[in-house]
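Re-running the complex after MR caught last week's input typo. The corrected sequence lines follow. Everything else is unchanged.
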Amino acid sequence: MLRAVLIEGLAITRGERRLFSGLTLTLRAGEAATLVGRNGAGKTSLLRSVAGLLRPADGAIAFEGEAGPLEAETARAEHLHLLGHQDGLKSSRTAWEELRFQTLWTGGSEASAREAAKRFDLGRLLDLEVRRLSAGQRRRLALARLVASPRSLWLLDEPMAPLDAGQRAAFGAVMAEHVAGGGMILASVHDPLPIEARSVPIGGEVGA
Amino acid sequence: MKAFGVLLRRELALAWGRGGGPLLALTFYACVVVLLPMASGRAPERLAAIAPGIAWLALALAALLSLERLFERDYEDGTLDLLALGPAPLEAVAVAKCLAQWLATGAPLALAAPVAALMLGADLKVMPLLVLCALAGGLAFAFLGGLGAALALGGKRGGLLVAVIVLPLFAPPVIFGAGALDGFSAGLPWTGGLMLLLAYCAGAVALSPLAMGAACRNALD
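Corrected-run output:
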């Protein structure tokens, strides 16, 4: 279980372009923050650098566990979920095969995957190939792994985009529950999240 | 270890289905073996002499066929992100992918190799050695091909790049294996070639995952 994520003086450069610099942000257990900024401001890059997929040009990202500072590698392998535009679902496999694999791979169990499928109302879709799902159904399938394998930090890139109003509300409840249970959410959004969240502007030379 | 098993099973299922899976490689293999004698002239004795060599070379070409997209799809659809955030390092992920590739296409090809060699008129006594060479060589081809595929990630015309990277790496095992097979059929010393092939295979399996892990990390950045 993570207690905090500490981002200090972070700068990210893509190619020749400096996206932002001097970003400092601390996220503690039970908090949610939304990254707001124009397209291309670096929201996705920030999420990917917290996940360790992208090397920041400057600054540091540290994790704190139950017993003090936590090795970044351990934190990333065991304690965080990254869900981007690309959900890693193979279109030729069935929804259940994909959910099961993603759940087991990130540390959940088959039972928790079934539970999560129920939670996201995927029951009748599980036997279908992923290619036959609609955008919203596919997104729900991707979101289900957040619940299926317990990891405390959720890095979400536009998580709500393809969801309809009812599903947004339902996912809002899931997020609220996660945060209330001591989880953390860092999400890039265009529309505000349906839960209480700090807003962090990204872009230009502005820190937070 | 449990996570590795889960990943290996998934990769096997994917490799089995990817682009026709073993059937594509086997069909390609059959094409080469059927067409080559037509191009090489009619003398059966000449054909019989080079039969094990042809069966062996065609194997290397068939192995190349399905390797190009080994990492590419996972890179494009975001699976590689997910794999990078799992309990096993990317090096282990690379091992699982190459191993699955070998099991799904390399092993079936190795079993087809003696059939092909027989059709070409090779001597029956060379078959056990051919299967052994094909199994070990196939393992080396899978890992080296995976290395090429990982290095070509994110590049335009990745397929071309894979072929260029992999060609020089494929040369030694092809030479060692052909040396062993030739020597054996001619009644000359042949163990040296086989040992070199096995050593090369062991080296490829041990070292290429390190390079594949680094290449994947680099591509994600």
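None of the earlier attempt is carried over here. Chain A has two domains: 1-79+152-162+183-208, 87-151. The domain at 1-79+152-162+183-208 of chain A is CATH 3.40.50.300 (Rossmann fold).
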